[in-house]
Structures are given as C-alpha cells and as structure tokens.
Design a protein that fits this description.
- The longest helix has 18 residues.
- The relative contact order is 0.14.
- Strand 1 and strand 2 form a beta hairpin.
- The radius of gyration is 18 Å and the shape is globular.
- The chain has ten helices and eight strands.
- A six-stranded mixed sheet has the order 3-5-4-6-8-7, sandwiched between helices. A two-stranded antiparallel ribbon has the order 1-2.
- Helix content is about 45%, strand content about 10%.
- By secondary structure, it is of the alpha/beta class.
- The chain has a domain of about 160 residues: 3-Layer(aba) Sandwich (Uracil-DNA Glycosylase, subunit E), CATH 3.40.470.10.
Length: about 240
C-alpha cells in the first residue's frame, strides 16, 4: 500500500494501484459496498490532473478516519487521535496507542511521555512542527491495556495510509507494539533496535517508547544512541 515505482509515468498500473488502495481504505471504515458518496466521487476526481495521479492527502485520510468503526474501541472513544506535525516531514515517529491526555486534546504525545519525546526531538535539532507524530492505534484501549491483535489489524491499513501520504525518509517506531506492527515481526524490541530496517523503501529505526524511559531511566542511553544514528542518516 506504500508508494511504488512500478509505473512512475502514471499509466494504467498506477490507476489500478490507486483504485485498489482507495477501496482497501474504504473497507477499513466498515464499507462493504461501492461508495458513491459525493466525497468518494470528489476523491476519485482528484486522482487525475494533467495525466498524473495524486497521493491522498493526510487531511483527507484524517477526515475519513474520524468516522472509523472498524473495531469495538470506537464505541467508547471521545475522539480519534490521528496525528500531528508536518504532513510532508522527512522524519516520522510512530508510537503504540494514545493515552487519556492525548484523547482529551486530540493529538498524540501530549502527556508526560509526550513531553519527554518533545525534549528528545528538540535535542535532535527538530521541532514537533517539522516532524510527523502518530500512533498505530488511534483510540484508547480500555484500562490502559496493550492493544490486542484484532485492534492492531483494524488500524494498520490506516497507518499505512498515513505513511503513504507523508512519505518520510525515516520512521522511528516507539515501543514494541508499533515496531511489531510496522515491521511485521514478533522479535523482541531489544533485538531490533540499534540498526535500520526497511519497510517499503523507508528506513525504520525501532527504539523504546518514552513512557518506558519514565519508568527505567537506564534505557535513555539506548534511545539516544538510536537517535544519533537517525540524525546521521537523515543528514547524509
């Protein structure tokens, strides 16, 4: 579902790719039939201009995601925590799932763990405004529990849409849930961090979630070593 170089000219294969992606995304919103809504028709018309096809914007995806009913987490949510930052950032951070403060403000990483992540981002020479922040899961799991696989599977196509829209050069996955979801692996995070992995042509750096650093400060050194690798690669 990520960007492809198979048909850079915007020919028939590109059209089929765009149509398939759009229908797959509609299915994640619970649609079982063909969508003939005004918005769907408008979206399809935006695909072609001067013989070229356009990647769906992050704003269009967010607008559609707010009505998502793919899993039971939507029943009790106050609002979807979609993402924030630069929609065309070269660096993207993907966490596990939002907390209560995130849901209250409608933005990811705004609680205590978010404050720590903001400090890390600033130490790297960036701001929250020139990176992109999101979580794999867009709604809060009850009782602050770890999301189950069914919930991850429901949100994963939406995350792929976000990645496709932003098209970052590097992604930092923060935590085991996000790392496993993006890399499609069950290996422990400790065995994955410290080196880059590949996902759809994008470099992935797994590292620990800032909430873990609040509980175990000894992991901060590991995270900073990971971020130094990210900075070096980013500025090549």
């Amino acid at each position: 579902m990520l960007k492809t170089d198979s048909d850079p000219s915007g020919g028939p294969q590109s059209l089929v790719h765009e149509i398939r992606n759009y229908f797959q995304f509609l299915s994640t919103l619970g649609c079982s039939g063909f969508d003939c809504s005004a918005h769907a028709i408008e979206q399809m018309q935006e695909w072609g201009s001067g013989g070229r096809f356009h990647t769906e914007t992050i704003y269009n995806i967010e607008r559609m995601a707010k009505d998502c009913r793919c899993c039971h987490l939507s029943a009790d949510r106050k609002q979807v925590v979609f993402g924030s930052g630069d929609p065309k950032a070269g660096l993207m951070f993907i966490g596990d799932y939002p907390d209560l403060e995130d849901e209250k403000q409608g933005r990811p990483f705004v609680g205590e763990a978010g404050e720590l992540l903001t400090k890390i981002i600033h130490a790297m020479g960036f701001t929250r405004e020139n990176v992109y922040l999101c979580n794999v899961i867009k709604c809060i799991p009850p009782g602050k529990r770890v999301p189950v696989q069914e919930e991850i599977n429901a949100c994963l196509p939406l995350l792929h849409r976000q990645i496709q829209a932003v098209q970052p050069d590097i992604i930092c996955t923060l935590g085991e849930v996000s790392t496993h979801a993006v890399l499609n692996t069950t290996k422990p995070l400790s065995a994955l961090r410290g080196r880059f992995h590949q996902f759809g042509g994008i470099k992935i750096m797994p590292t620990y979630h800032p909430s873990l650093l609040l509980k175990d400060e000894s992991r901060k050194r590991d995270v900073w070593e990971d971020m130094k690798l990210v900075m070096k690669e980013y500025h090549k």
